[in-house]
Q: What sequence folds into this?
C-alpha cells in the first residue's frame, strides 16, 4: 500500500525500510510531519532514531518505501541532484554535538551565516537573518564574536540551531539536541525550541529525536515511539503520555519522574 502525502505535509515517509547488510534497522516506517508541526521521535539506544533522521536527509537510501520532503519525492535522488537538493536548504539538520556544525577555528557569527554566504545572500540581508535567528534561540549578539570554545554547551547548541534557521528551512531535524548538555543548558535549549515552535507557527516544522521522553514531551505536538526499528505508537503528545497504548511506551513514561506537555497543544 502506498499513500500520497497530505497537501500540508513537509515530510512524508511512506513504508520505509532500511537495511544495513542483512539487518533490517527500520521496518515499514510511515510518518507524516505537517507544516508547522513539532513531532518527537523517542526510542531507546539502537532503536533506529538516527537512521530515521539520516533517511529524511537521504544520507541513507531506503531499501523500500518513499521519502517525500515538502512535496518533492527525493527517494531516488543521487549525486549532483542530491547535493543540489541538500543545498536548497528545505531541510536542515542539527547534530547532538554542536561542534559538528560549528567550525572550531571560525567565529560563531561567521559559522551561523556560512550557508548564506555560499548562497551569495547579500551581507546586510545575512546579518538581518542572523539577528532574527539569534533572537529566536535567545542567544546574545555579544557572544557570537567568540570562537565556539568560548561558549557553553547550551549556547553552542543554540548557535547551531540559529545556523540551521538562517537558511529558513521548512523542516528542522534535530537528533538528540540536548543529550550532550548538562541539566541547566538542556532547559535553555528546550525553552528555545518551545519558543521557536510558538513563534514560527506554520513556517517551521521540527522532527526532534531523543531517548528522553521528558524533554520531548515538553515541546512536541505529537510523539512517535520507535522500538526496534518499528513505530509502536504515534499520537498527540498529551494522549500518548496520559494513555499510552503500547507497553513499551508505558515503560518509557514510567522511567521519567514528571512529564510536562505543551500548555497549548495545537491541532
Ligand atoms: N552505518 C551502519 N552500518 C551498520 N549498522 C548500523 C549503521 N548505522 C546504524 N547501524 C545499526 O542500526 C541500529 C540503529 O542505529 P541508530 O544509530 O539509528 O540508533 P539510535 O536509535 O539513533 O541509537 P542512539 O540512541 O544510541 O543514538 C543499531 O543496531 C546500529 O548498530
Ligand atoms: Mg542516534
A:
Amino acid at each position: 500500500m502506498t499513500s500520497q502525502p497530505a497537501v500540508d505535509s513537509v515530510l512524508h515517509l511512506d513504508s520505509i525500510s532500511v537495511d544495513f547488510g542483512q539487518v533490517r534497522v527500520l521496518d515499514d516506517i510511515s510518518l507524516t510531519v505537517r507544516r508547522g508541526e513539532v513531532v518527537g521521535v523517542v526510542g531507546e539506544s539502537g532503536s533506529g532514531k538516527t537512521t530515521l533522521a539520516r533517511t529524511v536527509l537521504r544520507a541513507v537510501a531506503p531499501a523500500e518505501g518513499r521519502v517525500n520532503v515538502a512535496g518533492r519525492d527525493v527517494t531516488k535522488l543521487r549525486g549532483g541532484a542530491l547535493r543540489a537538493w541538500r543545498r536548497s536548504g528545505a531541510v536542515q539538520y542539527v547534530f547532538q554535538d554542536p561542534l559538528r556544525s560549528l567550525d572550531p577555528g571560525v567565529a560563531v557569527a561567521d559559522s551561523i551565516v556560512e550557508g548564506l554566504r555560499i548562497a551569495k545572500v547579500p551581507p546586510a540581508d545575512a546579518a538581518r537573518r542572523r539577528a532574527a535567528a539569534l533572537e529566536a534561540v535567545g542567544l546574545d549578539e555579544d557572544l557570537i564574536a567568540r570562537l565556539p570554545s568560548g561558549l557553553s554547551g547550551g549556547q553552542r547548541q543554540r548557535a547551531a540551531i540559529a545556523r540551521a534557521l538562517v537558511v529558513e528551512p521548512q523542516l528542522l531535524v534535530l537528533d538528540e539536541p540536548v543529550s550532550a548538555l548538562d541539566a541547566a543548558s538542556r532547559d535553555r535549549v528546550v525553552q528555545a525550541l518551545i519558543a521557536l515552535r510558538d513563534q514560527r507557527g506554520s513556517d517551521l516544522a521540527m522532527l526532534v529525536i531523543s531517548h528522553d521522553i521528558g524533554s520531548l514531551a515538553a515541546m512536541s505536538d505529537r510523539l512517535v515511539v520507535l522500538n526496534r526499528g518499528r513505530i509502536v505508537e504515534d499520537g498527540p503528545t498529551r494522549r500518548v503520555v496520559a494513555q499510552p497504548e503500547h507497553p513499551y511506551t508505558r515503560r518509557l513514561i514510567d522511567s521519567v519522574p514528571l512529564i510536562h506537555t505543551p500548555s497549548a497543544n495545537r491541532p
In short: The first strand starts at residue 9 and ends at 20.
